[in-house]
Write a structure and sequence with these properties.
7-stranded mixed sheet; disordered C terminus; disordered N terminus
């Protein structure tokens, strides 16, 4: 029993998102009941159309039910009893919602795009639900007002793993559009460089495009920061700097709660992480080199171009994370152990702190004259790693809204959706009741006008 539990946990649990898996299970029932796999033997197209219509109706009803449970959970959040909501009882890992999620309307949009209801052999998938949630989150965040802050992971989100943001990358125009709408931009990356030159090498396409843009005002050009090492090194756009980035001293942006991250504690945590990594390298016979940085430690291939087995990377992450969690120093200091695709690193802090720093850095001055951080419902973090273990975007969920993408092309598509919604609601007026639903439906229709589906 113990061995089976360990296998199930280590190989499956950390690779799943419980909320998405739960919705997937709910949608499996109408798929079994209403799908018509025998339709492949029939010549009547009407039977398939009827099946698709009925499946669409049932899927939409389920999404509506889940949407209402989320609304109930949000009401519980407001009075501090979110642990007692029905959704929390059904999905214990569920976290904080910063906005409503209009899942029904988001499903209608994605169903027209992905033809989920028309499928007879393949049920609604993990990716179907992930994209529905992304669209719902965009609808939710744009319905509460302007998007004040958008933060992005680097590798796999803006550009391919290990590559750079080249001038031809289509995501650049989308980011500049957001900046022209006064949305602040933060690149929150695990890359922990201490020199502006290294970040310029990775992000030169975006930096040069901002400098040359004729739609950005001088003030809007300043609305870009790079948060490196998850939450350890901050660089701001500077048109006069040699590499268009200026390093900001930690003392100028550090949050009050980060002041307790003393150097002896940091050193102790990194020492423990390093010893755990060395143990994994030995036990798994990995051809790896230990790389120690100022605020991180990790393993990289000893031979350039070689690849570690995925299972070895995940084993290393889980072992190191568990050892740090059980240690005294791990209870005093936040950290992030993650699988970078062909390396494993442990960073001081995590992306929740990185996004918090961006929220505070760009915070507006309130009515009382006191600087206020950008709120979570006005923040969107886009990343590719949202699984519970070995994924460094996961913790950003506690400080703002998030969108889970799988590759840079999905990021471009997501930002196109966001642009359409922002243009539809330029006035930023918040509507209530039926007005909100009408507004959201109008946004869905508008998205299809801008991005029509191909003819069958």
């Amino acid at each position: 029993m113990t061995t089976r539990y360990r296998v199930e946990y280590a190989l499956k649990t950390h690779r799943r998102d419980q909320f998405i898996e739960w919705i997937k299970g709910l949608l499996a029932v109408p798929f079994v009941l209403y799908s018509q796999p025998t339709g492949v033997f029939e010549t009547r197209s009407s039977s398939v159309a009827q099946m698709a219509a009925e499946a669409h109706r049932r899927y939409a009803e389920i999404m509506s039910d889940v949407e209402h449970m989320i609304d109930d959970h949000i009401e519980h959040q407001k009075v501090g009893t979110d642990g007692q909501s029905k959704l929390k009882l059904l999905v214990p890992s569920i976290g904080t919602f910063f906005t409503r999620l209009p899942l029904t309307d988001a499903f209608r949009y994605q169903d027209k795009k992905r033809f989920i209801s028309s499928r007879r052999f393949v049920p609604p998938s993990f990716n179907d639900i992930r994209l529905i949630l992304n669209t719902a989150q965009l609808m939710g965040v744009t319905s509460v007002g302007p998007l004040d802050l958008a933060t992005f992971d680097g590798d796999v989100t803006l550009y391919d793993d290990g590559k750079s943001l080249e001038p031809i990358n289509p995501v650049i125009d989308r980011i500049i559009y957001l900046m022209s709408r006064n949305t602040k931009i933060g690149i929150v990356t695990a890359a922990g460089y201490t020199k502006a030159e290294r970040y310029y090498e990775r992000l030169h396409g975006l930096l040069e495009a901002i400098k040359a843009s004729d739609i950005l005002t001088p003030a809007q050009r300043q609305n870009l920061v790079i948060m490196g090492g998850e939450s350890n090194f901050l660089f701001a756009y500077s048109p006069d700097a040699p590499y268009l980035l200026s390093h900001l001293s930690r003392r100028s942006w550090i949050l009050p709660s980060m002041s307790s991250w003393t150097q002896p504690t940091i050193t102790a945590l990194l020492d423990l992480a390093e010893s755990s990594l060395r143990e994994c390298v030995t036990n798994l016979s990995l051809p790896a080199t230990i790389l120690r940085k100022e605020r991180a430690v990790g393993i990289i291939p000893s031979v350039p171009g070689s690849k570690f087995p995925r299972e070895s990377l995940e084993e290393t992450v889980l072992v190191v994370q568990k050892k740090l969690e059980m240690s005294e120093v791990g209870k005093k200091l936040p950290f992030c152990a993650f699988n970078g695709g062909n390396d494993v690193f442990v960073d001081i802090g995590d992306k929740s702190w990185g996004v918090l720093v961006c929220q505070n850095y760009f915070g507006a001055v309130g009515l009382n004259g006191v600087s206020e951080s950008i709120r979570g419902e006005r923040t969107l973090h886009v990343g590719d790693q949202f699984l519970s273990a070995g994924s460094n975007d996961f913790k950003a969920r506690v400080v703002g809204t998030t969108a889970w993408i799988a590759n840079p092309a999905e990021t471009v598509e997501l930002l196109d959706e966001l642009k359409g919604m922002m243009e539809q609601g330029k006035e930023g007026a918040v509507k209530e009741g039926d007005g909100l639903e009408t507004d959201l439906l109008a946004r869905v229709d508008m998205l299809f006008e801008k991005h029509p589906m191909p003819c069958a």
